[in-house]
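Look over this record before class:
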Amino acid sequence: MNITDNTANILDQLNEKFAAIGQKTDTHLEGLIWAKPITYWDYIQTDALLNLQIQRTTLPDEMVFIMYHQVNELLFKMILWEINQICHAEKPETTFFTERLARISRYFNMLTTSFDIMGDGMEVAQYMKFRNTLTPASGFQSAQYRIIEFASTDLINLIDYRFRATIDRNTPYEHALEHLYWQAAGKDHKTGEKSFLLAEFERKYKALFLREMEAYNTINLWRKFKQLPETDQQNPDLVAAMRHYDYTVNVTWVMGHLNAARKYIDSGQGIAEATGGSDWKKYMHPKYQRRIFFPELWSEEELKNWGEEK
């Protein structure tokens, strides 16, 4: 048997790889003899993916609703995948930082433009019927989206605007969690009592959220940006990427979601609240949320007019 130089080089690399983990190269090579060739459907897990859509009603447009939200969650996972490459890099280079932010923004651009699927891709009459079977579930309960927020900015920028003066970096995470901006959407504004929507959300994810809040406290995107050399923090491409990401997530995407919701919830059929029972207009509108990931990158005038509809 003739072994080419390239084959010999590959075998040497395999020997080094498996020796490093205490394995025998021959064992792994023999395993390849019996291994099945990879197929697209096995690699992508197509059958499993296409069997995750379970309707609760017989209304056809509910399938659109389910698949749309599952696509959103996949995109959220892609966003977190990119964010973590920046956050967990010891010293990310400016070019790397900028390119990864561009990827993240493109994913959010996809999310924003996809609201046409929600706004124009379902019959209002069908939605108003199957929405009742979804109560009290709500898109509010997307844990991945909350983790994206924790990974993007300092916690103070996610605190309800009314309580920011009373909270700082020494505030216990559990106390901070109770005062995040989205808590207001799940509490009775008079009694402070949590809705079933919020209580179940926290029962499922509170421990995870507290871990993620602590984990990203010093490595979120803003902290990583501030760790760069001063000259790099002035890099126009990076600053533009930071601003674009901030505005896309906290204004453009939010307004796309809000406008899609308006079509259905404000459809004139007497429905004034979301499936989870939240005060969705105040919860969703960026001018009420006042959520800004990187406030130092915006002028006073821009901050003052944040989220105002043009």
Observations:
- The mean pLDDT is 90.
- The CA atoms of residues 144 and 213 lie 13 Å apart.
